[in-house]
């Protein structure tokens, strides 16, 4: 009789222990993961606005295509001889680090849509072996491209670091903008500085892991 009671007590003990373990496991595996990166303009509930552009394959790209993905954004023009080649060479390092990850995208927008047509962007993208499904070179209406830069991605028109003269109606920013899965801006990185590019590469996984 005593052995039977002991057996029951042990059974209950292990059942309770199992419940505790399963509860802890569920809590750990389903815990909300948050990156340490700040949310820019969180107090204003700032999110990337809607857009419609064309990529280097002539495919229409909208905000729906970036929904739920981590995105790095830049602006350039294909005939640029100043900062753009260096920025895109550095961007290729970011691309290489996350190539093949379906939750990561790069959007490189032209600031010169008259010259940077779809065929021109296709030719330019081949310099970096860019897969249009993951590194998109975008063109479209100039005003909409510029508005996205200024008001969605929060990239300015100032470029004090390069000595390049900036016209009022011409964007030539040397920064990348990092966007999280919810369309919020999480940081800016100088695309001309190797240390900044490496920091970007280190920061992206925290947003990919964020739930």
Structural class: alpha/beta
Full CATH superfamily name of the largest domain:
Glutaredoxin
The number of domains? 2
Strand order, largest beta sheet? 5-4-3-6-7
Could you say which overall geometry the principal axes of the C-alpha atoms support? globular
User: H/E series, N to C?
Assistant: HEEEHEHEHEEH
Q: What is the second-level CATH architecture of the largest domain?
A: 3-Layer(aba) Sandwich
Q: What is the number of E strands?
A: 7
Using only C-alpha atoms, the radius of gyration works out to: 24 Å
How much of the sequence lies in strands comes to 15-25%
Largest sheet: 5 strands, mixed
**Number of helix segments?**
5
Weakly predicted, low-confidence segments: 24-31, 157-167
Portion of residues within helices: 25-40%
CATH fold description of the largest domain: Glutaredoxin
Question: What is the CATH top level name of the largest domain?
Answer: Alpha Beta
What does this structure look like?
By secondary structure, this protein is α/β, with parallel strands linked by helices. The chain folds into two domains: 1-31; 42-208, Glutaredoxin (3-Layer(aba) Sandwich), CATH 3.40.30. The protein is built from five helices and seven strands, in the order αβββαβαβαββα. The strands form two sheets. Strands 5-4-3-6-7 form a five-stranded mixed sheet, with helices on both faces. The chain has a two-stranded antiparallel ribbon with strand order 1-2. β4 (104-110), α3 (118-125) and β5 (135-138) form a beta-alpha-beta unit. The longest helix is centred in the N-terminal third of the chain and has 28 residues, at 2-29. The radius of gyration is 24 Å and the shape is globular. The N and C termini lie far apart (52 Å). Mean pLDDT is 86; it is low at 24-31 and 157-167.
């Amino acid at each position: 009789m005593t052995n039977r009671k002991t057996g029951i007590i042990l059974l209950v003990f292990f059942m309770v222990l199992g419940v505790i373990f399963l509860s802890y496991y569920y809590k750990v595996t389903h815990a909300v993961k948050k990156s340490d990166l700040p949310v820019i303009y969180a107090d204003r509930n700032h999110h990337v606005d809607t857009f419609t552009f064309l990529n280097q394959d002539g495919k229409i790209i909208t905000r729906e295509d970036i929904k739920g993905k981590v995105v790095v954004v830049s602006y350039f023009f294909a005939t640029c001889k100043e900062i753009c080649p260096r920025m895109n060479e550095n961007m290729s390092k970011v691309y290489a680090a996350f190539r093949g990850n379906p939750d990561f995208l790069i959007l490189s927008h032209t600031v010169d849509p008259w010259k940077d047509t779809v065929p021109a962007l296709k030719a330019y993208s081949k310099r970096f072996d860019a897969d249009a499904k993951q590194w998109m070179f975008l063109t479209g209406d100039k005003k909409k491209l510029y508005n996205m830069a200024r008001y969605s991605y929060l990239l300015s028109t100032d470029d004090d670091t390069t000595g390049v003269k900036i016209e009022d109606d011409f964007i030539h920013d040397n920064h990348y903008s990092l966007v999280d899965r919810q369309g919020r801006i999480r940081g800016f990185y100088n695309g001309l500085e190797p240390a900044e590019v490496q920091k970007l590469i280190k920061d992206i996984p925290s947003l990919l892991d964020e739930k």
